[in-house]
Amino acid sequence: MADMNPLNLWRKFLALPNDNLTKTLAFAFLLALTASIVVSVGAVTLRPYQKANLERERQARMAEIIAALPQMSGLLNEVSVDALEVRLVNLETGEFEAGIDAATYDQRQAAKDPERSTELSPEIDIAGLKRRADFAPVFLLRRGDDLQLVILPVRGTGYQSMLYAYLALQADGNTIAGLTFYEQGDTPGFGARIEEPAWQALWPGKMIADSDGTIRISVVRGGAAGPYEVDGISGATHTSNGVSNMLRFWLGNAGFGPFLARLRAGEV
Amino acid sequence: MAKALGHVTGPLIKGNPVTLHILGICSALAVTTSVATALTMSAALTVVLILSSAAISSIRRHIPASIRLIVQITIIASLVIVMDMFLQAFAFEMSKRLSIFVGLIVTNCLVLGRAEGFARQNPVWPSTLDALGNGLGYSLILLVVGTIREILGAGSFLGHEILPLVENGGWFQPLRLMLLAPSAFFILGFIVWIIRCLRPEQVEEPEFRVVGLEEERRP
To answer: Contact, A91 vs A135, CB < 8 A?
Structure first.
């Protein structure tokens, strides 16, 4: 009868010569198993900390975009960033949605959920999103009753990663007050330079659409002229195009278009 | 005891992995613009090096020769992923500044070099000490390069201003070159030069000689 004592089997396994095929395969399997357990345990235990860090980063960027706007700094002394009003917008109609708590709404989760998101056809999906959540949070900053600033969360595919940004618009719904990226993984030194303040400083004052309502804003390769063009980053054409497409998508009809139309009509 | 100490002190100057073996240059260029990033990177690499050396050494008798490099890389890569996640969780700002270079420890020849060259053939304790020594040797070079670059490039050390900058009303105009990668090459070159002047036994034999050069030089 064969010896089935696991300890003895283990000793027998270890005693096999190292070039034995069985031992090689079993060794590779055990190593892969151990390595994957180590990595998985690490990932699961550290995820809450990483998420908290990302959340802090997101809020810091939000504070940054507001602090970077010259006419807002005076306003900021009166109201803290927390006094920003967060509303959920139904992207289909552009109306505010009161039924869902905006503070706990997770746009990224919703974009993955077929029940709460819309699949985008390839013609519309210029930003490479595949699905778009039905609701999106918008941040409104008011002084008294006057709307000062609208901040829209936007995302789009860059060169090798998803770019996440906040776009701040003046109350006219057509003048860009600022654009700041808070999460991206494009090439350091090239595409990742969209995070640099010097590049983000090119955005304030640019216009989105002309008087006909056609969206004109774009990132161009050198020699940006006029209120609708921003210089791209040399060596990062894909990232620059990604930023262009991201804005065109989110400002267009499939994105915040209906909401912005209401904003321009003074209904917000 | 003396031998154990030798494993740790040997790689500091005499057998320094960066200046003698010219290993780990990529990260030495990339993360040394400031002392803080250099120190974080050094700590990350030293920890990964020690753990991987200990792990590989402890299973050295059973590693099948045909897959030994894959085995070593797998162990190193797992440790690097965990280290990267650890930094993202507890040193988020720093991990953003180091960007991909923590992940690139996997491809750092220094780690695989010690695994293949030492840990595979030696018991656990000497391997761990050797890894510690090499990690410290790497850290020493990064610290020196990082210090020179931060002081000359930004006028500060660990973020504290040392040389008053012109823009703050002082006299020091920072050398922007020091913040670019080539400056690390120059500094490393000078360090290697100095060490090899003091220790001529480290000088390598030229691989080939240019024919006729000797004659031309004669007056």
So the answer is: yes
